[in-house]
Amino acid sequence: MAIASASTIVKFHEFPSGNVLHNYQPATQIDGPIRSISWSKDGNWLALVPNAGLAEIVSIKDQLKLIHTIQGIEEPSCASFQNTTKKNIAIGTKSGQVLIYDIKTRVVKKRFPRTTSEVNRVEFTAKDGHLIAACQNGEAYLYSNTQNSLSGTFKIPRSQTISALRTNPIKRNYVAAGSNEGVVAVWDIYGNKNKFFIGSHKAPVTSVAFSPISSDLVVSAGLDRQFCFYDIAANKCIGNIFVENSMTSVDFSPDGKFVVAASQKGNIYIYDSKNIQQPVHSFFGHSGPVEHLSFKKCEDYENSFSFSCDDKESVSTDEVLRNNESFAVDAMVFAESARCTPPQISVPPEDSFMAAMGLDQNNTVESFKQDGRGSDSSKKFLMHKYTPTNPSRLVQDRVQSETKIPMTSTPDIHDHDIFPKISPIVSLGSQPTSEQLKTSMDSVEDLVKSTVKEELRVVSGELKNDMKYYSTHILAQTRQMFLDLLMSMVKESIKVENNFNSLRQELVSENTQNPSSLFEENLMLKQKIAVLEEELAVLKNNQVNQNF
């Protein structure tokens, strides 16, 4: 099994050792992160889109080599192989085009309606019935691959961007997405609605992934130094794993047993999905941020772990439920241990942005050792948080575990179990004393109080986050209104000035006459003056003659 990681180059690692099998530098050799990578159905080809230049397809079947450069599609921004065939590949462009390219004939096979902005990500659904394209303006366009038409558009609630996108390999109608605002959403493309969304991250979401064996399990990674697990069916976050560095990419192994996450510093961590408290292995990937992680596809794995909504024989429902329950139990155990010894990592308010971006130095191993807290405090990087939605069940589980009563998912029912005469919290060897009962009740009461307090703390934190969001949103709206008002004033002043200039030009044009016409008018006036002078002289002579 192999995994591909992409930064400015693409590396192919052996899993789980991390040994580098191949290195590939795009032909353009532009110093910039690779935009996207995608495996073909059989795992022999990898399509990649460099930071600038044409999309490329490389083969690693026998040896690493470039087999095709996609010509005729200018400024590609992302690419994705179909899931059912390696013949076709979807390509999005910076100009908003969404195309399907036929690799064999080397021509554009389909052209979908153009989007309004640059296409950042394209993904096919499980059976290639639909193609979804995420754009820079925060909209996702759903296209029908059979009818070549636009089926609908989606947006992440409380967000203006889409920073991550992934389709469900099991359920064809589920699509997960993340935003720069820290919101993770799951869309139901058949119902054209939001199936699930939660603002679990305090920084941009960099990657999302579905479990290949459980259709309701989703993982997301973000720049706030954590990756989170969600149960879509239960509509909640079932685990928050905090790490030392900001996470840039995450993916499930094809068998669903491992979760692989990459950091902003180029390290790649491997977690066991049944014990996610600490990574089981890590290795160095790149000298810069790892932009993409993707396990090599294999037809054997697809036949073993993927199934459609109507196929019930390949993976049973009980097995999927057991996987979800075991993961939830592990998350609860980690949460309980973290609640008993909560980590104390202090970040100054002025450094919160630096902490979210993973650029501060307050949480490094060296700083913990320098301030005298010892090497054991370095374990506080891995914090675990779980919010119980059913406190009564948690209390019952705690009491049963403390009294060492076995818990079975399918207990044997006997006649004497229907009306039990002994309380389950009482030892079977002797009758409980009043002090024991009082002690048990006090412990239960304390546990209920602590659970309610934890619930209140979580709810208050969510309310604070919502207030921050709405205050920021209102401030942004006020600023936009002020800018609109200022722009309208500028437009009106320009309009008045233009009217004034046009009026002045009209006045100037009216007053400005032809010089020849002025000269003729001047001569006519002079002639009239001369005639009037002659008449005046004649009148004077006549008057003088009359006097004599």
TrEMBL record:
PANTHER family: PROTEIN NEDD1 (PTHR44414)
Single GO MF annotation: gamma-tubulin binding
Classification via InterPro entries: NEDD1_Spindle_Assembly, WD40/YVTN_repeat-like_dom_sf, WD40_repeat_dom_sf, WD40_rpt
GO biological process: microtubule nucleation; mitotic cell cycle
Chain positions of WD repeats: 198-240
Keywords: WD repeat
Protein name: Protein NEDD1
One GO location term (cellular component): ciliary basal body
Record organism: Zophobas morio
